[in-house]
Protein backbone atom coordinates (compact mmCIF):
# COMPACT_ATOMS: atom_id res chain seq x y z
CA UNK A 1 0.00 0.00 0.00
CA UNK A 2 1.54 3.24 -1.11
CA UNK A 3 0.20 6.26 0.71
CA UNK A 4 0.95 9.97 0.30
CA UNK A 5 1.46 12.12 3.37
CA UNK A 6 1.32 15.89 2.96
CA UNK A 7 2.64 18.76 5.04
CA UNK A 8 1.66 22.39 4.52
CA UNK A 9 4.08 25.22 5.16
CA UNK A 10 4.27 28.91 4.48
CA UNK A 11 6.76 31.65 3.79
CA UNK A 12 6.66 35.30 2.76
CA UNK A 13 9.29 36.39 0.29
CA UNK A 14 10.08 39.13 -2.19
CA UNK A 15 11.26 38.69 -5.73
CA UNK A 16 11.72 40.30 -9.08
CA UNK A 17 11.36 38.45 -12.36
CA UNK A 18 13.66 39.53 -15.14
CA UNK A 19 16.11 38.30 -17.70
CA UNK A 20 19.24 40.43 -17.63
CA UNK A 21 19.97 39.64 -21.26
CA UNK A 22 16.78 41.48 -22.26
CA UNK A 23 15.98 45.19 -22.46
CA UNK A 24 13.81 46.77 -19.76
CA UNK A 25 11.02 47.01 -22.33
CA UNK A 26 11.19 43.29 -23.13
CA UNK A 27 11.25 42.41 -19.41
CA UNK A 28 8.21 44.62 -18.80
CA UNK A 29 6.42 43.03 -21.74
CA UNK A 30 7.00 39.45 -20.54
CA UNK A 31 6.99 39.79 -16.75
CA UNK A 32 4.70 42.82 -16.32
CA UNK A 33 4.57 44.12 -12.74
CA UNK A 34 6.78 41.24 -11.63
CA UNK A 35 9.71 42.96 -13.40
CA UNK A 36 9.41 45.99 -11.09
CA UNK A 37 13.02 46.80 -10.09
CA UNK A 38 11.91 47.54 -6.51
CA UNK A 39 10.75 43.94 -5.95
CA UNK A 40 7.38 42.81 -4.57
CA UNK A 41 6.23 40.15 -2.15
CA UNK A 42 4.15 37.00 -2.17
CA UNK A 43 2.65 34.82 0.55
CA UNK A 44 3.85 31.45 -0.64
CA UNK A 45 1.97 28.37 0.45
CA UNK A 46 3.91 25.15 0.17
CA UNK A 47 2.66 21.57 0.22
CA UNK A 48 5.28 18.86 0.48
CA UNK A 49 3.98 15.40 -0.47
CA UNK A 50 5.85 12.20 0.34
CA UNK A 51 4.68 8.87 -1.06
CA UNK A 52 5.76 5.42 0.01
CA UNK A 53 4.90 2.18 1.72
CA UNK A 54 3.48 2.23 5.23
CA UNK A 55 6.20 1.07 7.59
CA UNK A 56 4.90 -2.05 9.40
CA UNK A 57 6.34 -1.10 12.79
CA UNK A 58 5.29 2.55 12.96
CA UNK A 59 2.31 2.68 10.61
CA UNK A 60 3.96 5.79 9.11
CA UNK A 61 5.11 6.55 5.59
CA UNK A 62 7.37 9.19 7.14
CA UNK A 63 7.48 10.63 10.64
CA UNK A 64 5.69 13.99 10.25
CA UNK A 65 7.77 15.55 13.03
CA UNK A 66 10.86 14.89 10.95
CA UNK A 67 9.20 16.26 7.80
CA UNK A 68 8.01 19.36 9.67
CA UNK A 69 11.51 20.08 10.99
CA UNK A 70 13.07 19.43 7.61
CA UNK A 71 10.76 21.94 5.91
CA UNK A 72 11.39 24.48 8.64
CA UNK A 73 15.17 24.14 8.54
CA UNK A 74 15.69 23.74 4.79
CA UNK A 75 12.97 25.98 3.38
CA UNK A 76 11.19 28.30 5.82
CA UNK A 77 14.33 29.42 7.65
CA UNK A 78 16.09 30.00 4.32
CA UNK A 79 13.27 31.74 2.40
CA UNK A 80 10.94 33.42 4.90
CA UNK A 81 11.12 37.24 4.85
CA UNK A 82 13.96 37.11 2.33
CA UNK A 83 14.52 38.81 -0.96
CA UNK A 84 14.89 35.69 -3.07
CA UNK A 85 16.95 37.37 -5.82
CA UNK A 86 19.45 38.90 -3.44
CA UNK A 87 19.53 36.65 -0.39
CA UNK A 88 19.08 33.10 -1.66
CA UNK A 89 22.12 31.75 -3.44
CA UNK A 90 20.23 29.66 -5.99
CA UNK A 91 18.44 32.71 -7.39
CA UNK A 92 21.55 34.76 -8.02
CA UNK A 93 21.53 33.17 -11.46
CA UNK A 94 18.02 31.73 -11.68
CA UNK A 95 14.81 33.69 -12.23
CA UNK A 96 12.72 33.14 -9.05
CA UNK A 97 9.50 32.16 -10.78
CA UNK A 98 7.17 29.81 -8.92
CA UNK A 99 8.39 27.09 -11.29
CA UNK A 100 12.05 27.61 -10.41
CA UNK A 101 11.33 28.01 -6.69
CA UNK A 102 9.51 24.66 -6.69
CA UNK A 103 12.51 22.97 -8.34
CA UNK A 104 14.93 24.52 -5.83
CA UNK A 105 12.73 23.37 -2.93
CA UNK A 106 12.46 19.87 -4.37
CA UNK A 107 16.25 19.64 -4.80
CA UNK A 108 16.90 20.76 -1.22
CA UNK A 109 14.40 18.32 0.31
CA UNK A 110 15.28 15.41 -1.98
CA UNK A 111 18.76 15.28 -0.44
CA UNK A 112 17.26 14.81 3.04
CA UNK A 113 14.44 12.34 2.42
CA UNK A 114 14.88 8.57 2.08
CA UNK A 115 15.30 7.72 -1.60
CA UNK A 116 12.69 4.95 -1.27
CA UNK A 117 10.10 7.70 -0.83
CA UNK A 118 8.75 9.77 -3.73
CA UNK A 119 8.69 13.53 -3.30
CA UNK A 120 6.37 16.09 -4.85
CA UNK A 121 6.17 19.84 -4.30
CA UNK A 122 3.14 22.08 -4.74
CA UNK A 123 3.80 25.79 -4.44
CA UNK A 124 1.10 28.47 -4.40
CA UNK A 125 2.33 31.92 -5.38
CA UNK A 126 -1.19 33.32 -5.16
CA UNK A 127 -4.40 31.60 -4.07
CA UNK A 128 -5.15 30.88 -7.74
CA UNK A 129 -1.69 30.31 -9.25
CA UNK A 130 0.24 27.25 -8.19
CA UNK A 131 2.82 24.88 -9.62
CA UNK A 132 3.76 21.28 -8.97
CA UNK A 133 7.10 19.51 -9.37
CA UNK A 134 7.91 15.88 -8.72
CA UNK A 135 11.45 15.65 -10.04
CA UNK A 136 10.85 14.60 -13.65
NI1 LIG B 1 5.74 38.00 -8.36
Descriptive account of the structure:
This protein has 136 residues and is α+β, with helices and mostly antiparallel strands. It has a single domain (2-12, 42-133), classed as 2-Layer Sandwich (Tetrahydropterin Synthase, Chain A), CATH 3.30.479. Helix content is 30%, strand content 30%. It has 4 helices and 5 strands; from the N terminus they run βαβαβααββ. A 5-stranded mixed beta sheet has the order 3-1-2-4-5. A hairpin with a 5-residue loop joins strand 4 and strand 5. The longest helix is centred in the middle third of the chain and has 16 residues, at 64-79. The protein is elongated and about 60 Å long. Nickel (II) ion (NI) is lined by residues 15, 34, 40, 42.
The CATH homologous superfamily is called: 6-pyruvoyl tetrahydropterin synthase/QueD
Mean pLDDT: 96
Q: What small molecules does this complex bind?
A: nickel (II) ion
Secondary-structure-based class equals: alpha+beta
What share of the residues does DSSP label as strand, in percent?
A: 25-35%
What is the terminal-to-terminal distance?
23 Å
Radius of gyration: 17 Å
Amino acid sequence: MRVTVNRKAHFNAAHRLYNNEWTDARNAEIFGKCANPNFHGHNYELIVSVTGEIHPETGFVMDMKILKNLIRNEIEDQFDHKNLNEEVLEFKTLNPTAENISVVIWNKLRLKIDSKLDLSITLYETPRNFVTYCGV
